[in-house]
């Protein structure tokens, strides 16, 4: 039985430990965000390798190229992801600077990597002080799983069943939202009720429920 007065993590909704009561997010959620921020710059950098559809032409056999032939078109969907990732990180960093009454962020050479590093550095502040830390966590997780899925289709999130947690608006019912699992991830989070499980425990629970 959970105590309705006990504060919960705004990201995974688990009750906070007594030494976490001054925080909006639990330590486990903080670690997950930090991990995503650590990996994002390399993931987004690797997306550049998908910008031109490279090997497809070679598979089609030799093509007599004339010098007038236009270069292979750039994949705009990939370019969009790269641009969006940089914009998301910059927007959040500017927002945090604003909260802290710091001047707007500036970047020297690599805005995306520098913004990710600055967000990582200030994450301990944000989990304690920033009301929208759950939105931030979700956007960063989305960028991470999008990029991972594009780079390795085997790691694309797949549907694994329906959420067995109590529904937020009616605890007598199961939430029932579709759960997606990113292969290799340690946890699964329901996008609707935000319950987070250990992936192995959830796998066992869903298998029993069938
Ligand atoms: Zn949490
Ligand atoms: Zn749910």
Strand and helix map with partners:
Elements (H helix, E strand, L loop, with lengths): L26 H21 L8 H4 L16 H24 L11 H19 L3 H19 L6 E5 L15 E4 L5 E3 L6 E3 H11 L1
Antiparallel strand pairs: 1-2, 3-4
The protein binds zinc ion (2 copies).
The site of one zinc ion (ZN) has 8 residues, from loops.
The amount of beta strand, in percent, is 5-15%
Q: Average pLDDT, to the nearest integer?
A: 86
One letter per element, helices H and strands E, the order comes to HHHHHEEEEH
Helix- and strand-based class? mainly alpha
Radius of gyration: 21 Å
The stretches of 5 or more residues where confidence is low (pLDDT under 50) are 55-61
Tally of strands: 4
Helicity, as a percent range: 40-55%
Present as ligands are: zinc ion
The neighbouring-strand order within the major sheet is 1-2
Give the overall form: flat
Distance between the termini: 25 Å
Largest sheet: 2 strands, antiparallel
Tally of separate helices? 6
What is the number of domains? 2
Summarize the structure.
This protein has helices at 27-47, 56-59, 76-99, 111-129, 133-151, 199-209, and strands at 158-162, 178-181, 187-189, 196-198.
Characteristic terms for this protein:
single chain, 210 residues, mainly alpha, 2 domains, two-stranded antiparallel sheet, 6 helices, binds zinc ion
Would you mind describing this structure in some detail?
This protein is mainly α. It has 2 domains: 132 residues, no CATH class; 54 residues, no CATH class. It has 6 helices and 4 strands, in the order αααααββββα. The strands form 2 sheets. It has a two-stranded antiparallel sheet with strand order 1-2. It has a two-stranded antiparallel sheet with strand order 3-4. β3 and β4 form a beta hairpin. α1 runs antiparallel to α4 and α3 packs antiparallel against α5. It binds zinc ion (ZN) (2 copies). The site of one zinc ion (ZN) has 8 residues, from loops.
């Amino acid at each position: 039985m959970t105590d309705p007065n006990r504060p919960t993590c705004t990201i995974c909704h688990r009750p906070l430990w007594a030494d976490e009561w001054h925080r909006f997010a639990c330590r486990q959620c903080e670690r997950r965000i930090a991990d995503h921020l650590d990996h994002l710059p390399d993931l987004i950098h690797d997306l550049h390798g998908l910008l031109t559809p490279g090997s497809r032409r070679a598979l089609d056999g030799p093509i007599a190229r004339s010098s007038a032939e236009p270069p292979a078109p750039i994949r705009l969907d990939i370019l969009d992801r790269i641009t969006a990732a940089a914009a998301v990180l910059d927007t959040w960093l500017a927002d945090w600077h604003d909260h802290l009454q710091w001047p707007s962020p500036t970047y020297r050479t690599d805005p995306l990597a520098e913004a990710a590093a600055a967000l990582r550095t200030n994450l301990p502040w944000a989990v304690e002080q920033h009301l929208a830390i759950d939105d931030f966590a979700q956007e960063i997780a989305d960028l991470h799983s999008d990029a991972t899925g594009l780079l390795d289709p085997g790691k694309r999130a797949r549907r694994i069943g329906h959420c067995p947690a109590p529904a937020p608006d009616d605890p007598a019912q199961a939430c029932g939202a579709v759960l997606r699992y990113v292969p290799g991830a340690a946890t699964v989070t329901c996008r609707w009720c935000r319950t987070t499980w250990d992936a192995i425990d959830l796998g066992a629970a869903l298998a029993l429920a069938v």
